[in-house]
């Protein structure tokens, strides 16, 4: 049995999955964890990582490395996504990851993956345990990974990484609490502009089921389910009709920060950016309804981490 460790470092969070090969080409989860580190803080404006953002990430990764060592991880892969593709001082980040990851497997360093590979890893992880039965909506699936700096849209044979996510959009346009009408208009226009090439590249009209992954969408699911606190088992494979999805999104967008922070399932690190994520979600829902007649979102707790880990055992 092989035990693997997968680390995903995005614009807003760093996450860890430790899993065992199950002997049938799949995984048995051992541990899953997430820390909001905001690595992409200010990158959209400055083009560089802030020193305090690198330090937050270093602290979190050092804890993950010690966890993986204690758990007996034999293979490890760490990928870095949108913010790291954009940062001019990313060599500082890579030097830090090389020093820490080398404690598990000498020579290991974080990899900057392309938006295309990010999308395909997310697709593999998201649909790995979904069947083609009516219970899960049935394929073809279109998967979206709504991150901090980018949003991936992918089907089996096509993928696109759009430069818009909850952090990037918030920093670009949403400066007031709650946002003004002018800010919402600017943000909506920005989302439409950034998503347009994705819908030109990916034939979403052929999709039957929309599967969404990552923190914005899982949080929306938790709120739709009325959970007093975050519960991944109840969220995984949950379904949100578009009527409910749009209602929740607009409530979050118009809600002041204090009220958002008081919501039971809301992670503190998402409070300031969930409105931006909700605006991207609304745009995605409108396009999937118009182009494919889809009327609900299936939320998956398996995502790019699972795709990374599967690649280590297959």
Automatic annotation (TrEMBL):
Q: Where would one find coiled-coil regions in this protein? A: none
* Domain Ppx/GppA phosphatase N-terminal residue range list: 20-308
Where is the chain membrane-spanning?
none
Q: Gene3D superfamilies, from UniProt? A: 3.30.420.40, Exopolyphosphatase. Domain 2
Superkingdom in the source lineage: Bacteria
Q: Which GO terms describe its molecular function?
A: pyrophosphatase activity
Q: Which CDD domains match?
A: ASKHA_NBD_MtPPX2-like
Instruction: Read off the InterPro entries from this record.
Output: ATPase_NBD (IPR043129), GppA/Ppx_hydrolase (IPR050273), Ppx_GppA_N (IPR003695)
Question: Which Pfam family would be a valid example here?
Answer: Ppx-GppA
- Matching PANTHER family: EXOPOLYPHOSPHATASE, EXOPOLYPHOSPHATASE 2
> By what name is this protein known?
Exopolyphosphatase
Q: Which organism is it from?
A: Gordonia iterans
Organism classification: Bacteria, Bacillati, Actinomycetota, Actinomycetes, Mycobacteriales
């Amino acid at each position: 049995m092989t035990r693997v460790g997968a680390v995903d470092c995005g614009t807003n969070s760093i996450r860890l999955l430790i899993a065992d090969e199950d002997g049938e080409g799949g995984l048995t989860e051992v541990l899953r964890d997430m820390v909001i580190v905001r690595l992409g803080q200010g990158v959209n404006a400055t083009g560089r990582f802030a020193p305090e953002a690198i330090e937050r990430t270093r602290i979190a990764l050092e804890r993950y490395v010690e966890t993986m060592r204690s758990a007996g991880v034999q293979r490890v892969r760490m990928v870095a996504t949108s913010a790291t593709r954009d940062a001019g001082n990313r060599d500082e980040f890579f030097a830090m990851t090389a020093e820490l990851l080398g404690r598990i497997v000498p020579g290991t360093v974080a990899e900057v993956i392309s938006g295309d590979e990010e999308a395909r890893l997310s697709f593999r992880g998201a649909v790995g345990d979904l069947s083609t039965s009516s219970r899960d909506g049935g394929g073809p699936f279109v998967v979206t990974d709504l991150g901090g700096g980018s949003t991936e849209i992918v089907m089996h044979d096509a993928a696109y990484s759009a430069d818009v996510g909850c952090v990037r959009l918030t920093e670009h346009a949403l400066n007031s609490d709650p946002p003004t009408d002018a800010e919402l208009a600017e943000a909506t226009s920005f989302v439409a502009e950034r998503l347009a090439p994705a819908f030109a590249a990916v034939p979403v009209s052929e999709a039957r089921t929309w599967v969404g992954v990552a923190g914005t969408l899982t949080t929306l699911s938790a709120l739709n389910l009325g959970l007093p606190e975050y519960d991944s088992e109840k969220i995984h494979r949950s379904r949100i009709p578009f009527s409910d999805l749009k209602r929740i999104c607009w409530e979050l967008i118009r809600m002041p920060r204090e009220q958002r922070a008081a919501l039971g399932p809301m992670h503190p690190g998402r409070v300031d950016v969930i409105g931006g994520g909700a605006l991207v979600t609304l745009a995605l829902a409108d396009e999937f309804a118009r182009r494919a007649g889809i009327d609900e979102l299936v939320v998956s707790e398996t995502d790019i981490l699972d795709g990374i880990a599967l690649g280590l055992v297959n």
